[in-house]
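User: Please predict the structure of the protein below. I'd like the answer in structure-token form so I can feed it into my own downstream comparison script.

Assistant: Understood. Taking the following sequence of 238 residues as input:
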Amino acid sequence: MSSLFRNTYQHPAVINLAGEEVPILFKAMRRKTLKVQVLETGEIEVRLPLNCPKNYLQSFLEQHTPWLIERRQQVMGLLRQKQSQFMYLGASYEIVVAGTKGIWLSDDKIYLPERYRGKELEALDNWQKQQAREYFQELIDHWWPGFEHGAQINKPVLRVKKMKTRWGSLSQKGYINLNRLLMQYSPELIEMVVVHELCHSHYFDHSANFHRLMAKHLPNYRQLEKALNKASRDVYSF
């Protein structure tokens, strides 16, 4: 098994997948089972119990090697696609570096100035954040009058974040946090998340009253939730 990986528990460690040495990260924590996943960067992460025996870890990784190879191929393919395509409001745009003064969309392409060559993803990341702030604020301004009466907070203050596990949240202090990666998805899905969070201005839970309020504002919200869950599996998000 020693050919499978080396430098166990050390950083950087490396695992051999189909002849390629891939970085592998170990995170020891208070848990009972081992969990392995392929990160969006193509690296492998293993979460393992404290004091996990090395021979058990080796056996676990060996058993999961076929899955790791297949999953990593999928991730790397999506990563290559990410580097050439940009998702914005549910549409895919080819990334083109040209002699433009700013970032702009035209048909199925998004154009970037020459100064961003080699830094396209970083530039688009910053551009997306700016667009998200303007887009989300417009939705909040549009929907808030329908929630203002009876709300437990004043009009919420927008915070645009890059979150791993949530599309949005609303605090009792009056902050509405929205994941800027929502900008990858279609307008109706973004709108559904905004309405969901504004419903929390009346009910800070997911009670029957909350769902009745959601249905009042968006009768098809259940279908939209399912669509967002499906889209988030299909679109490669960072």
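That's the full token string. Residues 54-84 form the longest helix (31 residues).
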